[in-house]
Design a protein that fits this description.
The protein is of the alpha+beta class. It has five helices and five strands. It has a five-stranded antiparallel beta sheet with strand order 1-2-3-5-4. Helix 2 runs antiparallel to helix 3 and helix 3 packs antiparallel against helix 5.
Length: 147
């Protein structure tokens, strides 16, 4: 993206990441910049970065069995009413909202089963979270009201 941006470009972020956890830092900086550039509440950057971190860590850690380089596309768009995001990847089919284990929120922390807490946090943090598989790609949709 250049310095000269029209309003529609300013209201959108489209970033392609490698399937490498080091890319999360670049994404966080881009999200922070997007939130600031669009005069959105700063806590939205924290909330979306938390969700992106969880989702992309799972994609990179568990989604690819071939050891190859892949692309993960992250889109963010503000339309005045809500901030929407889409995470798209070509990893193995996986619906985190249906297939991730439910977190164990009872008992001592040391005795709890591992897993599911990150997806639980994504669902609690966002107003909407959905998954679909389209054209051999996973699409995770997130939305948070701006009001």
């Amino acid at each position: 993206m250049g310095e000269r941006m029209g309003d529609s470009t300013r209201r959108r972020l489209d970033l392609v990441l490698r399937n490498d956890l080091s890319e999360l830092e670049r994404l966080a900086v881009a999200v922070d910049d997007f939130i600031e550039r669009n005069d959105l509440p700063p806590d939205l950057a924290f909330k979306f970065n938390l969700c992106f971190d969880e989702l992309i860590t799972n994609i990179v850690s568990y989604g690819y069995g071939d050891g190859g380089t892949h692309e993960i596309r992250v889109r963010l768009e503000a339309d005045g009413a809500e901030l929407r995001a889409e995470v798209e990847d070509d990893a193995d089919a996986f619906d985190p909202f249906a297939e991730a284990p439910a977190p164990d929120l009872t008992g001592d922390l040391d005795d709890r089963r591992i897993g599911g807490l990150g997806v639980f946090l994504v669902k609690k943090t966002m107003d909407r979270a959905a998954y679909r598989r389209e054209g051999g790609r996973n699409l995770v949709l997130l939305a948070k009201a701006l009001a």
